[in-house]
Amino acid sequence: MRTLKGKKSTWLDVLSPNEEDLKKIKKLGKFHPIILKELLTPSAHTRIDQYPDYLFLVVHIPVFDEETRTSRKAEIDLLITKNLVITVHYEALEQIDTFFSELAKSSEMSKELLDVESFSLVHAFFERVIHFSIRQLRHIEEKLTLVTQDVFSKHGDEFLKSIFIIKMDILDYHLIVHPQKELFKDLTSIGSDFWGEKSRAYLRDLQSENQPIHSNLESFLKIIESLETTNAQLVNTETNIIIRKFTVGAFLFSFSFFFIFIQSVPFIARLTLASAWHFWISFIVVHLFIVVLAFSLKKRKIFK
Predict the structure, then answer these.
(1) Class of domain 2-236
(2) What kind and span of H or E run contains 73?
């Protein structure tokens, strides 16, 4: 548990709270016991609740997992009064640690955010969270760039697997951040009522700041779906070319089999098998015809 105090506002940050932490938090405001109990374990859904003296928020944010190379969900809970912001999280989060450290070191930033009502700190806090989430989108963008460059040189099962992994990453990220759209919309309405009209501009700014995340995700999803379609078309084209080659090849070789077959016809056999020269002349004529036909088909780009 760590604290930063200003003239009007205080920020209390709690990592993995226990019962002792809850007792300390209980002394700081008129928080309902059920709400305090919820702080002990992560919640399944994003939410924002308004009470007479405080707001309670549950926010899920994307965190890049170095091992899986995809995004996973992390949670931040907030208890907010007009002069106090309590953040609760269940793992160390870079965006919180960095912001807390900067605020502790900068007297100018502390004066700007802690010497006024808590809406200013809430705005700055969520601004950092949003910017960090946008930064986290880069790993998806980098993957998309690489796979786009390979679309014409590497396709098939391996390429399809790469597309599937990126698509799942985009969808996982979307599931995490999608509820934030409604959260910030509700926060603008509820927060303006809680802090007054002076806070509305700050809270609306969070809605605007959050919008690029959703716009980028929609663009990324369209790109990956286009790549998926392009890959399928390329695979189909290659399959059709192979089938056409086998079909034309089978057609050409059928003349050889036909030549062998007609040897069983007595009349033909008497002509072609009368002597070795008759046979080889017939053989050369038939296969010369096959070569000329193959060349003609290749010239017309029917057979490559």
Answers:
(1) alpha beta
(2) strand 70-80
